[in-house]
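TEACHING EXERCISE
Course module: macromolecular assemblies
Task: Read the component lines below, then compare them to the predicted structure of the full complex.
Student: A.B.
Group: 4
Components provided:
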Amino acid sequence: MPINLHLWLVPGLCLAGFLLNLVFGRLWGKSIAGAVGVGFSGLALLAALWVAHRWSGAPYIEPHATWFLAGPLRVSFGLFLDPLSLLMMLIVTGVGFLIHLYSLGYMSEEGGFYRYFSLLNLFLFFMLTLVLAGNYLLLFAGWEGVGFASYILIGFFFRRDAAARAGIKAFVVNRIGDFGFLLGLFLIFARFGSFNYQTVFARAATLPVESGWHGPLTVIALLLLVGALGKSAQLPLYIWLPDAMEGPTPVSALIHAATMVTAGVYMIARSAVIYDHSPAARSLVLAIGALTAIFAASIGVLQRDIKRILAYSTISQIGYMFMACGVAAYGAGVFHLMTHAFFKALLFLGAGSVIHAMHGEQDIFRIRSLAPGGLKRYAPITFWTFVIATCAISGIPGFSGYFSKDLILERVFAATSGAGRIWWALGLVAAFLTAFYMFRALFVTFFPAPAGAPESAAHPTGQEPAGAAAAGGHGNPENAPRHALPHESPAVMTIPLLGLAVLAALGGYLNWGDRLLHFLAPAFSPTPNAVAYRPLPPFLTAGVQHALMALTIAVALGGLLLAWVLYRRRPRAAAQWAEAVPGLYRLVFNKYWVDEFFDAVLITPLRAISHWVLWRGVDDGLIAGSLRGIGGGLLKTSDGLRRQISGSLRSYAAWIAAGACAAVIYMGWLTLR
Amino acid sequence: MPTSLMDYLRILPEIILTVFGALILLVEGAARGGSRGRIAGALAFIGSLLALAAGISLIRYPGTAFAGMVRVDSVSIYFHILILATVAVVTLLAMDFLRTDGHPRGEFYALLLFAAVGMGFMVSSDNLILTFIGLEISSISSYVLCAYRRHAPKSTEAALKYLLLGSFATAFFLYGITLLYGASGSVSLPAIGQSLAGKMAAGGLALGSLIPLAAALIFVGLGFKVSAAPFQVWTPDVYEGAPALVTGFISTAAKAAAFVILLRVFYVALRGYSQQWFWLMWVAAILSMTLGNIGALRQTSLKRMLAYSSVAQAGYILVAFAVIAQNPAPRVLPGHAPVSGILAGPGVGAILFYLTVYTAMNLGAFAVIARVANRGERFTSLSDFAGLGKRHPGLALAMTLFLLSLLGVPFTGGFLAKLYIFQSAFQAHLIGLAIVALVNTVIAAWYYLRVVVYMYMRPPEGELPPIASSPAWTLGAACCAVVVLWLGILPGHLLHWLAK
Amino acid sequence: MNLLAAVNPNSLPAGAPYILHYVPLLIQFIFAMAFAGLAIGASWLLGRHRNTRRKLSPYECGITPEGDARHRFAVKFYLVAIVFILFDIEAVFLLPWAVVYRGLGWFGFAEMAIYLAIVMTGFLYIWKKGVFDWNTPERAE
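Instructor-supplied answer key:
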């Protein structure tokens, strides 16, 4: 009998914090509301550490009351702990706690303090439910819950129209993904008769590996993938994430960088057994990951809003995690998930600190022009931590991101051959672009403008940059004096920065000697006798490995160098290059017009159907139809534009009579047939 | 056959309701001044609680009464409880509402109780004539209730439309009964089932060939009552015009009762013909879901939007009816099967669960609308809900809960209710139907969430009068919210009870 | 199947759809419709349309019409008419009861007493509501 770990405490504490602030928050002042929010997330972290300390290492199931029972379906509140969920739990509570702390400073001037903290706690609760769930249905509940919390938090500044719209967009796009996910869940149940991980995986492991696209496991894997694409903002469902940056910056750091958006990767890694049985689905995961990585990275190159740059880099980095899952290197994917959580949270918090310092300015070029002599002079801690994070994400050797990204590229190289290496090559190019645009952001944001730099970067199209329009990024910019000098953030904000900086710098060493991979391996093959740790193929000798490593390093340094040249040495070159290929520039600058595409293909027709067919057609049109026949009805439909009369009794009776005729004729036909 | 005391015991809820309804009328006639509505409301509340207690006590007296006309089984007990609880909650909701709305008269409650009498007979009737009478009692009361704000043109218009179209639909229902009688020689549901089963067993469909026509006609009549497409056309106008609480009542309790008739007629009597009526349910389900959801997208009146939404919700329930048709459990004498057998059938449990959750969440939503609409029901448009989160956080929170449940977000009853239906559809291999239902849920997100957005993310528009407080209303709405949450988080109890 | 074969229901083969028994009815219906349509249509087509004022005036049992036929009646007439119908029908229920009264005994008496009590409740209600009071022009709510 294993010891009782009291796993429920971890999400339970977050729920308690949420409820307390929800009920009493309005009565309490800011200090108590903040203390409760931070305190309970800290307690959750302690509880998580306690659980980690007492955990024996064997998969642990904590059954609770039966949630519901319907025929053969029995779903419990069961929580589940294995290496994967342990790591996720620690990431979520650890990063979550630091971000709570940071929020104390960042949100201090905003209204709705208690509302903010209660929602943040609520988010942690759902996220922990998601990662600790012992069955797919509870995972889905957490999945929907984090979506809801994120939707509310994106729209936190609800007086801003853009924030409200971004919230809706996030929710609706995610519903598309959830639709696939839900179908996948139903199929899992239909196939395995259970939602429990252990039952499902044990039964799936006995099935043969499928070839082609029609096997049941492949279909399940593909449907789950649709859900993961929505939640993790991958092609083509990534469109909500950049807009989600309308939320407060700590929220972007926690939800839209470190934890929630990686839930898709977690879910795929969790379903490793299913994906292992479907090479076809895995190859799709690989392709989508690689394409997203390069696609989002290329958009990031031209963004001017610091948070949007980070948003696209998040999409791109999650693409790497998908690539890793696509070649069954789930451990590598989760490793990158972890390092990414560290450095991306750090980047966002750093960006928040910059925005805080600049009183709400988010356009990096304007930040440069507003901070004479370079922002690094005014905010040294922010600057140095940002440098560490940039090095980490760019894959500069020694920093955490280098280890995980290099590992992923190596595994992709090892698992592919021939034309399949294109994915690896794309990943490499994306790494180059990542280094470039991140150092571009660093140089432009923190350094003074080099001599001869144009006041603003080139805009051959003359369009207003997106960042400028959203300049009021920090909630209510009118609260802050616009032209005060930039300043360093208070200690309550810099301490989390320093903490995350240590993790971002050193987090990579956790995998020294592949220790993390060995630790995680049992989670991906629950049947004890399966090969837990996948050895490398023989052709990947030490020489080849070193060559690959050198290539990754070269690419990262190349990106750094290019950014250095374009934004420090020869500032005019960037504009000249852009003018050389105006079409491409506009295409990338406008993010490939994907939003416009979705608008035209999906949203407009749906609205049109509702408007023209049902409202005008059915509501208005049919009245005319009963009066003057079909021909007159059509004319009258367009007339209805002006005369919005509805509710003719005779037309209603005609509907019912028509329906009755249809039913009777159908049944009569059955009779006389 | 002499009637015994037991016979009366088995219709005790209806007797209590009738007595209290008559009492209210007497008090209405005798009393003067402002106390009238209050006494009537109190009487109605006591009456509905007593009837509820009687309904619960029926658990100990299952069986038939009045020569098999009334059948007290788990379905009828279950729906007695559901309907009577709904009446009690509506009474609570209405107490202050009627006063602020300027209609303090007590007839509202009498009509409510009489409607409940009709519904009670609808759910426990085993005889088509009694079913018809119950249907008429509840319908006629509903017509009058719709016209309750009789000085408002919209209200009277709604009532007139409901009356005329309802009579039209009832005619179909009656014609269906006639044909059924002609084909089987009986109006008793078990007898019809037996007679048809016997004829089927004999191999001859000769006399039975009118059955499909009867099924179609009965379906028209009941499809109207549950506002299933294409018989849903009346719904937007009537739901919009009727007072919000009345809409809440007729869109939940009346619909639930009509669904029970549908269940009894098709599942008990016409079970042998499930292959024939399956497609009726299938088509109606798809039409209702799609027309309901897409129609709701552009509505600016919240009542009208929820009217379309309730059409869509009826569609989801019809999905479960298609499931039932697909999986007729083999049973020799369907009519005499113990009703626990009915409940065990795939899909039936899903229908009961869905109707329960739907009643709570829809009634709750209309209760909030009635509150926000304020005196004279002037504020029912979407823009009137703008900024409700600031103006009245409690109301906004309740509305959010009900809307999220209608949408089917986890941790609300609506989620599990949908889950059971979709799951039963998957198990019955009705993949296409399930996918249409899922797509519809996605579409529905648009208009439900739009209200939430308005409440929390838009500033209030114009000067709105304050919303008067009402303890009775709060209690009633809290009941709805508790049920929605309770069934969303811990549905185990109810499901266990259903499974029994 | 030839529908005309069903003209004589007795000649139908065993097992034929039952609805075919109604074919004679259908034929009767068609003939009735056709005859009515023909009669009206023919008079409309063949007759001469020479309208005079007198011809177009409403027919009132041979008496010279006076004034406009479209009066507005007080709503009280409708109310009383409806109440009359209601109680009329309720009274009709007494007839079958009276026929078997002896057989039912005290039980029947009690049943009818309850029934009449309910009817009387309704009567009291409308009485108190002032339905029979002709003199109040508009009752205040």
